[in-house]
Specification:
Number of helices: 16
Low-confidence stretches: none
Oligomer: single chain
Distance between the termini: 27 Å
Structural class: alpha/beta
Radius of gyration: 24 Å
Strand order of the largest sheet: 12-11-10-9-8-7-15-16-17
Bound molecules: iron/sulfur cluster
Number of strands: 17
Shape: globular
Length: 470
């Protein structure tokens, strides 16, 4: 009797105009099946675990299915394979320092969950930042340092940013490791010569947020009392002009923050971006839609403003239909198909850190200012009451492993999802975690069909039975 193989728990079946596509989330392989027994065989391969003999399929088809990971040796532990990849990614991730230069901001967005305090890093903190970077680079012999300047509005503390940037670049030259930076900004407080600024500080990406077209954006992003624009222009005009200038020198990611009040602006905003020439500039412009949501208790007041999952899907579909392909940024999509994950967010990267302007270290930028979420002391402010034993989340972050969670370990999206945002798990909000499953059930069929130059039938979504199977 010939060898027997098990079906993979990570195979999905997507109906096409003729036949099916099989996609294996653990290997990223895609296989098209047509013909008489395509229906039965694809159902077998994407269903509950079963054993199939080489004799029944024939040598050639068996070999093809084994190469793609659709059939595996019966003793092979697929979950352990995903776990090994996950921990390797945490250890191998480059060093990323997300540095909150200040909690101050010149705009008063209604949804801003950051506490606008006077906390800011000072030039006396530069040496401490360099010491952190040096430690993180050395302990696992890392070859690159990426700094993400963050706030508040990071450019409101320009003197610190410039001195810290020079010092960190100098460290990297001495250590012979690569250096690059990015900025998350509201786009209203930049130096005039952005070309020199970008070059001097090796900024390879800038994220600028918009809250709709001018009327909505300016109403939501008003200057706070005492923080007027230097030239009298409203925040939309300032930010839009900056995007045009930045795109001559570096990549810009446009984040369109959507809620009930501005969702109807998206189509017009994309038209505006096209007319401004943002997608034909020397550097790449990516536009993505973000749902304004309550990330923490501090922002729970946002719940009534949140878009429903269906409305958010509509906006994303609109963006996909109307944006040029290079302006879309679908995570982990290579050559048209989703790929098994090989990288983690900065919060999970073993050698990365979030430096708060309050002198505390966090794992995720969205936690800055939530002192009970801190995982260590950076050393900036000395008057904090927290003692090392009070950094109770530290162990949670060190141990977090989606392959050990009851839900994710049984989920067939696990290799392409890795549990989604770990902060959602820490916050314990199961409805937030469910969003990931919904995303994949709704979008995976379209992604696979797109990659094959096909369309799925309207409304083709995977089921929870496809996601969680015996
Ligand atoms: S924990 Fe979530 S929000 Fe924070 S960096 Fe990771 S993915 Fe982003
Ligand atoms: S889709 Fe949901 S259950 Fe599946 S791995 Fe992602 S977060 Fe976990």
């Amino acid at each position: 009797m010939g060898a027997e193989f098990a079906t993979s728990r990570y195979t999905f079946r997507i109906p096409l105009s003729t036949g099916y596509a099989l996609f294996n989330a653990s290997t990223g392989s895609v296989l098209r099946m047509d013909g008489g027994d395509a229906d039965e065989l694809s159902a077998l391969l994407s269903g509950a675990r079963t054993w199939i003999s080489e004799e029944s399929l024939g040598q050639q088809l068996t070999a093809t299915l084994r190469r793609g990971g659709f059939l595996i040796d019966a003793a092979f532990d697929e979950l352990a394979g995903v776990r090994a990849r996950y921990w390797a990614a945490r250890g191998h991730a480059p060093v990323v320092l997300l540095v909150t230069t200040t909690m101050d901001c010149n705009l008063g967005c209604y949804y801003c969950y950051e506490s606008r305090s006077s906390d800011a890093l000072t030039v006396q903190d530069v040496d401490k930042l360099v010491a952190i970077a040096n430690d993180r680079l050395k302990r696992n012999h890392k070859q690159s340092l990426h700094v993400d300047w963050y706030g508040g509005e990071p450019l409101m503390n320009l003197s610190f940013l410039e001195q810290a940037s020079e010092a960190l670049q100098s460290l990297c030259r001495t250590q012979k490791v690569a250096y690059h930076a990015s900025v998350i900004s509201n786009g209203t407080h930049w130096p005039n010569d952005v070309g020199s600024f970008v070059k001097q500080h090796q900024i390879r990406q800038v994220q600028i947020s918009f809250d709709g077209l001018a009327a909505n954006h300016n109403r939501r992003r008003r200057y706070r009392p005492g923080y007027q624009s230097d030239d009298g222009q409203a925040s939309f005009t300032k930010a839009a002009a900056l995007v045009g200038r930045l795109l001559q020198h570096t990549r810009v990611d446009i984040r369109f923050n959507a809620d009930h009040g501005n969702a109807d602006d998206l189509a017009g905003f994309i038209e505006f971006a096209k007319e401004e020439g943002w997608f034909a500039a020397p550097f790449r412009c990516v536009l993505f839609v973000a749902k304004l949501s309550a990330y923490s208790d501090r922002s729970a007041f946002l719940r009534p403003h949140e878009l429903s999952p269906e409305r958010f899907d509509e906006l994303q579909a609109l963006a996909r239909r109307t944006l040029p392909a290079e302006a879309l940024d679908e995570e982990n999509v290579i050559a048209g198909f989703p790929q098994p994950r090989t990288s983690v967010c900065g919060a999970l990267a073993s050698d990365s850190a979030v430096v708060g302007a309050d002198g505390l270290e966090y794992r995720c930028g969205l936690q800055v200012g939530e002192t009970h979420r801190a995982v260590g002391r950076f050393g900036g402010r000395q008057n904090l009451l927290l003692q090392p034993q009070e950094f109770i989340d530290r162990g949670w972050w060190e141990r977090f492993d989606p392959t050990e969670l009851p839900t994710c370990s049984n989920c067939s999206f696990l290799p392409i999802c890795w549990g989604g945002c770990p902060k959602r798990h820490l916050d314990g909000d199961s409805s937030d975690v469910d969003i990931e499953g919904r995303y994949w059930r709704t979008n995976l069929p379209r992604m696979i069909a797109d990659g094959l130059g096909e369309r799925t039938s309207d409304g083709c979504v995977l089921s929870t039975a496809d996601q969680f199977r015996e």
